[in-house]
Amino acid sequence: THAGIQNWLTEVASTAAPSTTRSYHRVMSMMLKYAIRDGRLSRNPADGVKLPRIVKGKHPYLTHAQVQHLAHLAAEDGDVVLFLAYTGLRWGEMAALRVKDLDMLRRRVHVDQAVTEVGRELVYGTPKNHSRRNVPFPSFLVDMLAEHCQGKRSDEFVFTAPQGGALRNRNWR
């Protein structure tokens, strides 16, 4: 019944996050929808149930000092930490970045590709939401980026794994 589902979700909401409660409702509602399609029910008792609101929390951002400390702790991978922190690129966008994507004079990164790990395969495609864009980077990253590009062809990755080749998120962590 509608009241039974409402009571159940109220109980779930007392111990679970609002998004979890909403997920439970979505699954229950889909199952009941199939029961209607099958002719076992005439209406969906999960329709119109009051659900908890999802309140988005405030995003915590690191201070400059915290970013520097994290980069220091990351040792040889500190450049990746600095680059991600000060450009806002996603991991897959940074891992797919090629030398030709950097405009050192204008201090811009041209983001038009991202990489995702699917099993053991690397799959290259457009960035999330197909958002090709130019992203500025601060002048204090110029020397570090120039060092990463030194001696590389324009189609080679800026950031590479220790043995060369593409960075993989699961190995980097």
Describe the protein's architecture and organization.
With 173 residues, this protein is α+β, with helices and mostly antiparallel strands. The chain is 40% helix and 12% strand. It contains 7 helices and 5 strands; from the N terminus they run H-H-H-H-H-E-E-E-E-E-H-H. The protein has helices at 2-13, 18-37, 64-73, 78-87, 91-95, 142-149, 169-172, and strands at residues 102-103, 108-111, 114-118, 121-125, 133-136. The strands form 2 sheets. A 3-stranded antiparallel β-sheet has the order 1-2-5, with no helix packed on it. A two-stranded antiparallel ribbon has the order 3-4. Helix 1 runs antiparallel to helix 2 (18-37) and helix 3 (64-73) runs antiparallel to helix 4 (78-87). The model has no long low-confidence stretch (mean pLDDT 93).
Detail the topology: elements first, then pairings.
Elements: H1 2-13, H2 18-37, H3 64-73, H4 78-87, H5 91-95, E1 102-103, E2 108-111, E3 114-118, E4 121-125, E5 133-136, H6 142-149, H7 169-172
Antiparallel strand pairs: 1-2, 2-5, 3-4
Helix residue percentage:
25-40%
- Lateral arrangement of strands in the main beta sheet: 1-2-5
Structural class: alpha+beta
Task: Please state the overall shape, judged from the principal axes of the Cα atoms.
Answer: elongated
Pick out the low-confidence regions: none
Most strands sheet: 3 strands, antiparallel
**Number of distinct helices:** 7
**SSE topology string:** HHHHHEEEEEHH
Q: What is the C-alpha radius of gyration, as a whole number of Å?
A: 24 Å
Distance between the termini: 48 Å
Q: Return the average pLDDT rounded to an integer.
A: 93
